[in-house]
Amino acid sequence: MDDAKEEDLHTSGTDPLPFRAAVDALRAARLRPQVEVEPTRAPQRLAPYAYALEAAVVDGDQDLADGRLVLLHDPAGHDAWRGTFRLVTLVRAELEAEMAADPLLPDVCWSWLTGALTARGLACGEPSGTVTRASSHYFGGLSERPSASQIEIRASWTPREGLGGVPDTAAHLAAWCDLLAQIAGLPPAGPGDASVVTLPQRRGPQSR
Questions:
Q1: Which end of the chain has fewer CB within 10 Å, C or N?
Q2: Within the chain, what is the greatest distance between any pair of CA atoms?
Q3: pLDDT value at position 75?
C-alpha cells in the first residue's frame, strides 16, 4: 500500500479530538481471535470525518462471515442521528436454504444486533436498518454449483457519548464482532443476552 493510501486509513492531527479518541479506541480494542479486523478506506461523503474497518470470521483458511463497520463524526451534530457520532454496518453470511426460508429469520437477525449491544451494556439511539435474504441459482457453465442463500444485515445507530463527547467505540466494536460471530454460527464468547435466539450453523464455510 502506498503512503497516500495508507494516510487515508488513519486520522490526522487536525481531526477533532473526540474523533481521534474514538478511532484510537477502535484500534486498541481486544477482540476474539476468530475475528480478523483491519482498517479500510472510509466513505468520504457521509460525514466530515469517517473511519472504517472490515472484518471476517475465520476458521482455519475459511471465511464464515464478513462485514464492514464505519464510524462517522460530525462535530456540528446531525438531526437524524441526534448526536455527533454514528455507526454504520454491513454484515453478511451464507445460510442453509431451509434456514433462509424461515419467515422469522429477519426478526431473529435484527435481534442478534440489538441483543449484541444489550449484552455489552450499550445504549444507542435512532437505530435503523434492513435485513435482506437472497438466493442464487446457477445455470449453463455454472450449473454444477449448488444453489446458495445469503443473509445481509445493514444497520446504523447513534452510540451514547461519554466523557469529552467520546462514545465507547471499543465496546461497540466488540458487540459488532459478537454479531459477526453469531451470524457465522460460532458459540458466544461469554455471557450474553438470554433473550436472543440463536439459529443453527449456517451454510458450510467458504474457502479464502
A1: N
A2: 59
A3: 94
Mean pLDDT of the chain: 82
Average pLDDT over residues 40-67: 89
The pLDDT, as a whole number, for residue 134 is 82
SS (H, E, C) the chain: CCHHHHHHCCCCCCCCHHHHHHHHHHHHCCCCCCEEEEEECCCCCCCCEEEEEEEEEEECCEEEEEEEEEEEEEEEEECCCCEEEEEEEEEEEEECHHHHCCCCHHHHHHHHHHHHHHHCCCCEEEEEEEEEEEEECCCHHHCCCCCEEEEEEEEEEEECECHHHCECHHHHHHHHHHHHHHHHCCCCCCCCCCCCCCCCCCCCCEEC
Q: What pLDDT score was predicted for residue 189? A: 64
Q: What is the mean pLDDT of residues 61-72?
A: 89
| pLDDT score recorded for residue 5 | 43
Return the ∠ at Cα 102 (arms to 104 and 58), rounded to 5°: 95
Which residue in this structure is represented by grid cell 448526536? 83
